[in-house]
C-alpha cells in the first residue's frame, strides 16, 4: 500500500472540499445557470435541439434506450433524460430535489395537498403555467373540477395527472349469497343481515366457521360507502344551515359507528381489523375468509382472479350502492388527480424550453400518447389487425418498459380499468365507473389546507382513529360520542372549523 | 513461553520506557488519523449545520439564510404538547425494557456458544440464529400477526382447541411492550452475538488449560477468564446504548402500532413520522431529534465518566 | 488439548446448553423457513395464507421473474462492486483511524473520540449531506454510496477497543526489529485482529449489500442501481398506481408476495455464502503462535 500516494489524494480531496464546502452552505437556493441554451429572444425557434429532463416515480422497470426513446427525441427535437425514481421513495426524493435546487426541467410532485408544496409555491419555486397551457388542446381537456382543485391562489402551478373522481364500489361473494338464498343487499339493514349471515351460516358450505362478513383494515379502512350511506359527509359536510362541519363529528358519523360496532359484536367484521394493512386485508378476501369488500373498482380484477385460483366457484361481484336509514348513498368524490407536473421557476428565462415541455406533456395526454404509453410504437411493438384489435409483442414491450418513459397520462374516466383482465371483467369495471360518475359526495374544501390542519391535523386524526376503533371494538361506549366530539373541538377542531368555513365562504363557487 | 520471546519482552520493557516517551511525538500515528478525520469533517461535521434549522422556521426553498429564526420556540411547543409525557414515558419504557431484557441476550448466547466444543454444531447454531436479522420488519411483524391474530392466528387456534378463549395479543395494551421486546430478541439477538464471539475468539486457550490444571471448574473459568475477556466490549456497548435511550427504531414500532395501543406504543419516532406526513414541519421534527440527541449525549457522558471512575476504559 | 473428566454438573450443563441453543435456533429458523417456503410455494398455497413452512410443490416462478429481469445481472455487478470496494474502503479507513486511537498516550485522543461519539448522536439530516455529496461531484456515481459511509463511528469505537486488547509487548518486539508504526499496524496488529476484522468485514459488507435509501437519493441513473433497489421495484404492492402503470406486468402468473419473499432470499443468500469464510476467524486461539513470533 503506497501510503504517500494515498495521503496526497486525501489532501487534494480535502482542499477541494474545503473550497466547495463553503459553498455548500446556504446552497439550498436554486441554481440559475443550468439552462443549455442562451436566453431566448422573443421569436423562439422551435427547431432548436435542447435537453430536457423529467423526474417521476417509477413503477416497475426503467425504460430502455431503444426505439421508443429515440422516437420521443426525434419528435420533439430534444435530448431526453427521464429520471425515474423508485416509487417507494419518490416522495422523499421529490422533496430533496426542490430543497437542494436539483429540480429536473419538469418533475412530478406527488403529495397533495401538502404544506411543503404550498410553501414552495408561495416562495416562488414553481412556474405559474396558466398562460403557457391555455392553447394546449389535450391539457385543457381536464374537467373544471380538477383545475379548481389544483389551483393555488387562483393560479395553476402544475399540470395534474388525472385520475377518476369516483372509484369505489361494494363487492360481495355472489356465490355465498346464492348458497344462502339471499338477495343482493340494497339497504344498510340488508347489508347488516348479509354480513351476519356470512359469518354465522357457513356460506362456503365447508363445515367450518371460517368466514365473516366485512374485510376491514386499520382505522376502519374500506368502509367508504357505509359512511356515505349514513350521510357522514366526505371530509366536511354542508350542514342544513350552510356551514361546514367536519365529518368526524357529524350526527351521521355517530349512527354509522353504532352500525359498525353492532356488526363487530356479531363477529361480522374481521376481529383483527385494527392491525391489518391493505395487503393483509386483501389476503382475507383471496383466501376466502371475507365476503364483503368496499374499495377500488380497479382492484376488482385481481380479486376475481385470485379468489378463483383457490376456489374456482368463487364469484366476486360488484353491486350497486346501498342506502342508509335516511335514504342516502354515495361514494367519496376524490381530488381527481395524483400528483402534478411542475416546472421550476428558473425556466422562466427559457420560454422555448417551457414551450417544448408543454407540447411534450400535451402529446402525452393525447390519444397518440396514451397508445404509446400502453403499447409502444406501431410496427415496432404492436401491429393493428384488420378488425381493429392489436397484436402486441408483450415480451419486447415488457423488456423495454416503454410506458415508463413518460409520466403524464390522458384524461380518461376509465383509466383504472384493468387492461389485462378478461373482457367481461373489464366491461363490469367500465360500467361501474359509469355508475359511480354521478354518485360522488363532494368534499367542498378538498384542496384547502388550513393552518390548523397543518399544525394539529395529525393529532386530530389520531384522536379520531382511537375513538372510532375503540368504539367499534367495544372498548369505549358510543354514548361517549358527544364527549369525544367536544374533545375533538377543544383540541383544535373548533379553530379548524372556523378557518375552513371562512375559506369556504370566500371561495364558494 | 519461548525464551527468545521472554528475552525480547524483557529487553523491550527496559527500552520501552524511553522509547514510549519518544512515541508520543510519533507523527506517523497522526498521519494515520488524517483520512478518518477528513471523513468525519466532510461527511459528518460539515453537514451538521443542518441542525440549526431546529431554531428556525425553515423552508428548504429559502434555505438557511432565508428562513427566519425563532430560537427555542419549537422546543417549547414540544414540551407543551399534551402528548409529550406519554411519548417520553413510552419511549423510555420500551428502551428500558430493551436494556434489561434484550441487551443481555446476545451476551448470554455467545457465552453459551463458547461452551460448545463441537465446532460443526457451533457453526450451525451461529449461522441460524443470525438469519432473522436479514428479514425486514415487515416480514417479522407479518409472521407475528399470523401467530397472534385473533381471527385464525395459530396461537389462538391452539388456545381455542385447548378449550380457552382467544387472547387479543395485538390489540391489548398490556401485551404491546412485551411483544416489541420479544420480537427484537427474535430478530436481532443472534446478530448481536457476533461481536462477543469475536471478542471471545481472542482469548488464549492456554489460559483455560492453565486454569484447569489449577483445578478451576467451569464456573470459575467463566468468571475469571471468559467474562473478563468480553467485559470491556460489554461496557463499551452499554455506554453507547445510553446514547440511544430515546431511540426505539421506527419501522418496527410503526408496524406494530394501531389505534388500540397508541397509549403504550406511541414513541417520538412515530410522532415525528405523523407530523412530517403533511409537510411543513422540518424545523419541528429536527427540534425533536435534537432533543433526543441531547438527552443521549448527556447520558453517554455520564456513563462514560462513571465507567472511568471505576477504573475501566471508557469510550473516550 | 488437555482432557479432563467432566463432572456431572458439567455434563448436565452441556446438555441444557445444547437444548437451549437448539430451541432458540428453531425459533429463529421459522421466519426464514417461512420466507423460503413462500417464495417457492405454488400460487394456490400462498393465496390460502397462513404460516407456510413447506411448499406443497415447488414453483420457481418468483425466482424466474427476478433472474430474467433484464437489469438483474447489471444490478448484481453494481452491488458486488459497491460491496467489495466499499468494504475495502471501510476497513482501510476504520483501521487506520482506530489504531492510533488505541494508543493511550496519543495526545488529543479523548477529544477526537468524543467528537466521533457526537457524530453518532447528531446528524445534519438528508438535505445538508446531499448538498455536500453534490458539491464534491459524487452524485450519480457509486462513490456517493461508498464514501459518505466510509467509517461507521460504532465500528470504529469497537475496533479500537479490540486493538487495545493486543498486548503492547508484541508491538514493542516488532519495533525493536525495526518496524515503523505502519509496519506494526499492518504486520502485527491486523493479523492478530482477525476476529475483529472478520466481524467488521461482515458488518460493513452487509451494510453495503442491503443499501437502498442512499442509492435512491444519490443515484439517478438506473444502470447504477444496486440490487436492493431493483428488487424492490419488482414488488407490486397494494396501490392503485402500481396496477395502473404495471398493467403490462400484471398478468399475475406470479404473486407479488412470492416475488417479495424470493427477493428477500436472493438478497440474503450471498451473505450466507460469505459467512462461513469469515467464521473460521472466530476460531479460538488466534493469538496462539503469535507469542512465538
Automatic annotation (TrEMBL), chain A:
Where is the signal peptide, in residue numbers?
1-28
Q: Which InterPro entries match?
A: Bact_solute-bd_prot1
Which keywords does this chain's UniProt record carry? Answer: Signal
Q: Which CDD domains match?
A: PBP2_AlgQ_like_1
Parts of the chain that traverse the membrane: none
Source organism superkingdom: Bacteria
> What is the recorded name of this protein?
Extracellular solute-binding protein
Automatic annotation (TrEMBL), chain C:
Taking every annotated instance into account, which residue ranges of this chain make up the domain ABC transmembrane type-1?
76-278
Membrane topology of this protein: Multi-pass membrane protein
Pfam families membership = BPD_transp_1 (PF00528)
Which is one Gene Ontology cellular component term of this protein? plasma membrane
InterPro entries the record matches: MetI-like, MetI-like_sf
Q: Which UniProt keywords apply?
A: Cell membrane, Membrane, Transmembrane, Transmembrane helix, Transport
Subcellular location, record wording: Cell membrane
Domain of life per record? Bacteria
GO:BP terms for this protein?
transmembrane transport
- Locate the transmembrane regions by residue number: 12-34, 76-99, 111-133, 145-163, 184-206, 259-278
Give the protein family: Belongs to the binding-protein-dependent transport system permease family.
- Know the name of this protein? Carbohydrate ABC transporter permease
Q: Give the organism, scientific name.
A: Paenibacillus mangrovi
Amino acid at each position: 500500500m503506497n501510503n504517500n500516494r494515498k495521503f496526497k489524494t486525501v489532501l487534494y480531496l480535502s482542499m477541494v472540499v474545503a473550497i466547495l464546502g463553503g459553498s455548500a452552505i446556504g446552497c439550498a437556493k436554486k441554481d440559475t445557470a443550468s439552462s443549455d441554451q442562451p436566453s431566448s429572444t422573443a421569436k423562439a425557434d422551435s427547431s432548436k435541439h435542447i435537453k430536457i429532463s423529467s423526474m417521476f416515480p417509477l413503477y416497475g422497470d426503467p425504460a430502455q434506450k431503444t426505439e421508443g426513446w429515440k422516437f420521443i427525441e426525434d419528435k420533439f427535437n430534444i435530448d431526453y433524460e427521464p429520471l425515474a425514481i423508485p416509487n417507494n421513495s419518490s416522495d422523499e426524493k421529490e422533496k430533496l430535489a426542490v430543497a437542494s435546487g436539483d429540480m429536473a426541467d419538469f418533475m412530478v410532485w406527488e403529495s397533495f395537498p401538502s404544506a411543503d408544496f404550498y410553501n414552495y409555491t408561495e416562495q416562488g419555486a414553481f412556474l405559474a403555467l396558466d398562460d403557457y397551457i391555455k392553447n394546449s388542446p389535450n391539457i385543457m381537456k381536464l374537467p373544471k373540477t380538477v383545475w379548481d382543485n389544483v389551483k393555488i391562489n387562483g393560479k395553476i402551478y402544475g399540470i395534474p395527472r388525472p385520475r377518476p373522481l369516483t372509484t369505489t364500489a361494494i363487492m360481495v361473494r355472489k356465490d355465498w349469497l346464492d348458497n344462502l338464498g339471499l338477495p343482493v343487499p340494497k339497504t344498510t339493514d340488508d347489508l347488516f343481515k348479509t354480513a351476519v349471515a356470512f359469518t354465522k351460516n357457513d356460506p362456503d358450505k365447508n363445515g367450518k366457521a371460517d368466514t365473516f362478513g366485512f374485510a376491514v383494515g386499520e382505522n376502519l379502512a374500506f368502509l367508504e360507502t357505509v359512511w356515505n350511506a349514513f350521510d357522514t359527509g366526505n371530509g366536511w359536510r354542508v350542514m342544513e344551515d350552510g356551514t361546514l362541519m367536519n365529518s368526524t363529528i357529524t350526527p351521521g358519523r355517530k349512527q354509522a359507528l353504532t352500525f359498525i360496532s353492532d356488526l363487530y359484536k356479531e363477529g361480522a367484521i374481521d376481529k383483527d381489523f385494527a392491525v391489518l394493512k391493505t395487503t393483509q386485508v386483501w389476503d382475507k378476501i383471496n383466501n376466502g375468509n371475507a365476503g364483503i369488500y368496499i374499495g377500488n373498482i380497479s382492484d376488482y380484477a385481481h380479486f376475481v382472479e385470485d379468489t378463483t385460483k383457490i376456489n374456482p366457484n368463487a364469484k366476486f361481484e360488484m353491486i350497486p350502492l346501498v342506502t342508509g336509514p335516511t335514504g342516502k348513498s354515495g361514494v367519496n368524490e376524490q381530488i381527481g388527480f395524483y400528483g402534478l407536473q411542475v416546472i421550476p421557476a428558473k425556466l422562466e428565462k427559457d420560454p422555448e424550453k417551457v414551450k417544448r415541455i408543454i407540447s411534450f406533456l400535451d402529446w402525452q395526454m393525447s390519444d397518440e400518447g396514451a397508445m404509446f404509453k400502453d403499447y409502444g410504437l406501431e410496427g415496432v411493438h404492436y401491429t393493428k389487425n384488420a378488425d381493429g384489435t392489436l397484436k402486441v409483442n408483450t415480451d419486447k414491450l415488457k423488456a423495454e418498459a416503454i410506458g415508463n418513459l413518460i409520466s403524464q397520462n390522458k384524461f380518461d374516466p376509465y383509466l383504472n380499468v384493468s387492461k389485462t383482465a378478461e373482457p367481461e371483467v373489464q366491461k363490469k369495471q367500465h360500467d361501474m365507473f359509469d355508475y359511480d360518475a354521478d354518485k360522488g359526495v363532494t368534499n367542498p374544501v378538498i384542496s384547502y389546507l388550513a393552518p390548523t390542519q397543518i399544525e394539529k391535523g395529525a393529532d386530530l386524526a389520531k384522536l379520531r382513529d382511537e375513538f372510532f376503533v375503540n368504539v367499534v371494538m367495544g372498548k369505549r361506549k358510543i354514548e361517549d360520542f358527544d364527549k369525544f366530539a367536544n374533545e375533538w373541538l377543544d383540541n383544535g377542531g373548533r379553530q379548524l372549523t372556523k378557518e375552513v368555513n371562512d375559506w369556504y365562504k370566500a371561495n364558494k363557487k | 513461553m519461548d525464551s527468545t520471546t521472554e528475552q525480547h519482552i524483557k529487553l523491550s520493557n527496559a527500552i520501552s520506557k524511553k522509547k514510549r516517551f519518544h512515541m508520543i511525538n510519533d507523527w506517523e500515528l497522526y498521519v494515520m488519523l488524517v483520512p478518518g478525520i477528513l471523513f468525519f469533517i466532510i461527511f459528518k461535521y460539515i453537514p451538521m449545520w443542518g441542525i440549526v434549522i431546529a431554531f428556525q422556521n425553515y423552508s428548504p426553498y429559502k434555505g438557511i439564510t432565508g428562513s427566519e429564526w425563532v430560537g427555542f420556540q419549537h422546543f417549547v411547543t414540544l414540551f407543551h404538547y399534551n402528548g409529550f409525557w406519554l411519548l417520553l414515558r413510552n419511549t423510555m419504557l420500551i428502551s428500558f425494557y430493551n436494556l434489561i431484557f434484550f441487551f443481555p441476550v446476545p451476551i448470554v448466547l455467545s457465552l453459551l456458544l463458547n461452551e460448545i466444543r463441537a465446532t460443526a454444531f457451533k457453526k450451525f447454531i451461529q449461522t441460524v440464529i443470525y438469519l432473522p436479522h436479514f428479514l425486514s420488519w415487515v416480514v417479522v411483524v407479518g409472521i407475528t400477526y399470523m401467530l397472534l391474530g385473533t381471527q385464525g392466528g395459530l396461537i389462538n387456534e391452539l388456545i381455542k382447541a385447548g378449550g380457552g378463549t382467544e387472547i387479543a395479543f395485538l390489540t391489548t395494551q398490556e401485551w404491546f411492550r412485551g411483544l416489541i421486546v420479544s420480537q427484537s430478541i427474535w430478530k436481532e439477538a443472534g446478530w448481536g452475538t457476533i461481536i462477543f464471539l469475536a471478542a471471545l475468539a481472542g482469548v488464549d486457550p492456554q489460559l483455560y488449560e492453565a486454569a484447569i490444571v489449577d483445578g478451576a471448574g467451569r464456573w470459575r473459568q467463566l468468571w475469571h477468564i471468559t467474562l473478563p475477556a468480553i467485559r470491556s466490549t460489554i461496557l463499551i456497548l452499554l455506554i453507547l446504548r445510553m446514547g440511544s435511550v430515546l431511540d426505539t427504531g421506527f419501522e418496527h414500532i410503526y408496524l406494530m402500532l394501531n389505534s388500540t395501543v397508541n397509549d403504550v406504543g406511541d414513541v417520538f419516532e412515530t410522532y415525528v413520522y405523523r407530523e412530517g406526513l403533511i409537510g411543513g414541519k422540518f424545523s419541528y421534527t429536527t427540534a425533536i431529534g435534537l432533543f433526543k440527541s441531547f438527552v443521549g449525549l448527556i447520558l453517554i457522558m455520564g456513563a462514560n465518566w462513571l465507567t472511568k471512575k471505576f477504573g475501566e476504559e471508557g469510550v473516550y | 488439548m488437555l482432557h479432563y473428566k467432566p463432572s456431572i454438573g458439567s455434563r448436565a450443563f452441556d446438555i441444557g446448553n445444547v437444548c437451549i441453543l437448539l430451541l432458540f435456533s428453531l425459533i429463529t429458523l421459522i421466519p426464514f423457513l417461512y420466507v423460503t417456503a413462500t417464495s417457492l410455494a405454488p400460487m394456490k398455497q400462498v393465496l390460502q395464507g397462513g404460516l407456510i413452512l413447506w411448499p406443497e410443490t415447488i414453483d420457481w416462478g418468483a425466482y424466474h421473474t427476478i433472474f430474467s429481469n433484464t437489469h438483474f445481472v447489471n444490478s448484481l455487478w453494481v452491488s458486488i462492486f459497491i460491496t467489495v470496494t466499499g468494504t475495502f474502503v471501510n476497513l482501510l479507513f476504520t483501521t487506520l483511524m482506530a489504531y492510533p486511537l488505541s494508543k493511550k498516550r496519543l495526545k488529543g485522543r479523548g477529544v477526537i473520540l468524543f467528537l466521533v461519539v457526537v457524530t453518532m448522536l447528531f446528524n445534519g439530516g438528508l438535505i445538508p449531506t446531499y448538498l455536500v455529496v453534490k458539491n464534491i461531484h459524487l452524485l450519480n456515481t457509486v462513490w456517493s454510496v461508498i464514501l459518505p459511509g466510509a467509517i461507521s463511528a460504532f465500528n470504529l469505537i469497537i475496533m479500537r477497543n479490540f486493538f487495545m486488547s493486543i498486548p503492547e509487548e508484541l508491538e514493542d518486539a516488532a519495533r525493536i526489529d525495526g518496524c515503523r508504526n505502519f509496519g506494526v499496524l499492518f504486520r502485527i496488529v491486523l493479523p492478530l485482529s482477525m476476529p475483529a476484522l472478520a466481524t467488521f468485514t461482515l458488518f460493513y459488507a452487509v451494510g453495503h449489500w442491503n443499501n437502498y435509501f442512499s442509492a435512491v437519493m444519490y443515484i439517478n441513473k438506473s444502470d447504477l442501481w444496486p440490487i436492493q433497489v431493483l428488487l424492490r421495484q419488482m414488488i407490486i404492492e397494494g396501490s392503485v398506481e402500481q396496477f395502473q402503470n404495471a398493467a403490462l406486468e400484471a398478468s399475475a402468473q406470479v404473486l407479488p408476495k412470492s416475488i417479495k419473499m424470493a427477493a428477500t432470499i436472493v438478497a440474503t443468500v450471498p451473505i450466507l455464502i460469505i459467512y462461513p469464510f469469515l467464521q473460521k476467524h472466530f476460531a479460538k486461539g488466534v493469538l496462539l503462535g503469535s507469542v512465538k513470533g
